[in-house]
Write a structure and sequence with these properties.
Distance between the termini: 30 Å
Order of helices and strands: HEEEHEHEEHHEEEHEHE
Oligomer: single chain
CATH superfamily of the largest domain: Gcn5-related N-acetyltransferase (GNAT)
CATH class of the largest domain: Alpha Beta
CATH architecture of the largest domain: 3-Layer(aba) Sandwich
Number of domains: 2
Strand order of the largest sheet: 4-11-5-10-9-8-7-6
Structural class: alpha+beta
Strand content: 25-35%
Radius of gyration: 18 Å
């Protein structure tokens, strides 16, 4: 896995669906309709050495839009950025594992309790979003807007997997991969409803996503994981290559 290629992919991805502004060595992205911090963050240039003035300008750009000043980036590619941010009042949120897919590793089998489908119908697309909302403890109800958003992702070259229980067809797990850019894609939004966890469903979803993405032309697959997820994804062919810093003010 090439970390620089991942950074380039992340920059290209935020340019696709958000308002963006280059502020010194930072590519700042903003969602005009959603203040969720995960849709509003900056990525520094590789090797960036920002000045205090450039950090202040970045902060101002987010605050003028009523957004939290925030960054997500591969910390090893811009080691001079974090100290500058900390001195400007930022605090570390997380350091998540950056994991790349190694097809040569042995993969643990997924759950035989589920059938894995590529969602197409409005009913299946909505079910996928319902699973993700419940898995991530999001109290809001998914609506038609989210179904349209998922259709747009699929139409632009992304993919999705819905896991349903074989006995009663209840949707239990889900995941996506982003549109492939220069052979790179991210596996994301992987979740299992609480009542169905610890059955190997997440591993089955990730395994199918990885295979489907590779069949679609992806050669560099990655995902981001917390400590518990890192152990899980390590059993289905993903290897930790670095850390992604989430930091905000």
């Amino acid at each position: 896995m090439e970390s620089a290629a991942i950074h380039a992919f992340l920059r290209a991805s935020v340019r696709r669906g958000r308002e963006c502004e280059q502020i010194g060595p930072f590519l700042a992205s903003f969602s005009p309709h959603d203040a969720n911090p995960f849709f509003n963050y900056a990525i520094p240039d590789d090797g960036a050495t920002p000045s205090d003035g450039e950090v202040a300008a970045l902060i101002d750009a987010y605050e003028r839009r009523s957004r939290k000043p925030r960054l997500e980036y591969v910390s090893d590619l811009a080691p001079a950025v974090e100290p500058r941010l900390l001195s400007a009042g930022f605090g570390v949120e997380h350091r998540v594992a950056l994991m790349g897919f190694d097809p040569a590793t042995d993969r643990a089998p997924g759950s035989a309790e589920v059938e894995l489908i590529a969602p197409v119908s409005a009913e299946d697309l909505l079910a996928l979003r319902v699973v993700q909302h419940e898995a991530y403890d999001d109290p809001s109800e998914p609506d038609e807007h989210e179904v349209v958003s998922l259709r747009r992702l699929l139409a632009s070259g992304g993919g999705a997997v819905l896991a349903r229980m074989r006995d009663d067809h209840i949707a239990a797990g889900a995941g996506e991969y982003s549109p492939i850019i220069d052979g790179v894609t991210e596996l994301t939004s992987i979740g299992v409803r609480p009542a169905y966890r610890r059955r190997g469903i997440a591993a089955a979803v990730v395994d199918r996503l990885a295979d489907t993405a590779r069949e679609a032309g992806a050669v560099n697959l990655f995902l981001m994981a917390n400590d518990a997820e890192e152990r899980l994804y390590g059993r289905v062919g993903f290897v930790t290559e670095g850390r992604v810093l989430h930091i905000s003010r």
